[in-house]
Design brief:
The chain has about 220 residues and is mainly alpha-helical. It has nine helices and no strands. Helix 4 packs antiparallel against helix 5.
Length: about 220
């Protein structure tokens, strides 16, 4: 219980840092980007949200590779404390977006709500032994590594469409590969370990449906 409370404190701290980053990003863009000043308040919030999230996810990816992925691959060592902290850092971005950003699509809101919920569920999971926990980790880290998508989502309002063609194509390709590998891993694991599936797995798949729905819509939009 003490560890869970500590991670909740981290979550509150991270939410404060994310919200402060919105404020700083707003100041920087107002003083450096003329096109930002022409956007209405809702679009400015959306730009702030995606730029801040892309930076945070990029940092989380680098940190996660060295502190989580490397120990897992090399020594099969799962550090619950680090994974829990990284999880609440990831979800704090979505939580702040839900509170602050106006006019998010309903699928995006559902995605963010489920992400926040699962990050708190993860605080009760032992990743060393839980197959359910490993599934959550795989999907979350795959999403983290696609931070370029958020970069593009924010920057498209600040630059002309033709100036971001390469970024959009790169974001689409990275996102597509991430989704494909992610889904294939989940399907293969379920086929090979069907006898291990429990109630928690089926509830996870039910929630995952809404996340996948948003992922598919976003990928189709990137392909347009």
């Amino acid at each position: 219980m003490e560890m869970i409370l500590n991670n909740i404190y981290y979550f509150i701290l991270f939410c404060g840092l994310v919200r402060s980053s919105y404020f700083i990003t707003d100041i920087v863009l107002k003083n450096t980007t003329k096109k930002y000043l022409t956007l209405d308040n809702d679009k400015q919030q959306y730009v702030q949200k995606n730029i801040v999230k892309s930076i945070n996810l990029a940092c989380l990816t680098v940190y996660g590779v060295s502190q989580i992925i490397y120990p897992v691959v090399m020594y099969n060592t799962w550090d619950n404390n680090i994974i829990h902290i990284c999880g609440v850092f990831y979800s704090s971005n979505d939580f702040v977006a839900l509170l602050y950003v106006n006019k998010l699509s309903q699928t995006t809101k559902n995605h963010h709500k489920i992400t926040v919920f699962l990050s708190f569920v993860a605080l009760t999971v032992d990743f060393k032994t839980s197959t359910f926990g490993k599934m959550m980790f795989i999907y979350t880290f795959s999403s983290t590594a696609t931070y370029l998508v958020n970069t593009y989502l924010g920057m498209r309002f600040l630059y002309e469409k033709d100036d971001l063609t390469i970024m959009k194509r790169s974001a689409r390709n990275i996102y597509g590969v991430s989704l494909l590998l992610n889904w294939c891993w989940h399907i293969q694991w379920c086929i090979n370990n069907f006898n291990l599936l429990g109630v928690q797995h089926y509830l996870y798949f039910l929630l995952l449906f809404f996340i996948i729905k948003d992922d598919v819509l976003l990928f189709k939009w990137l392909c347009a």
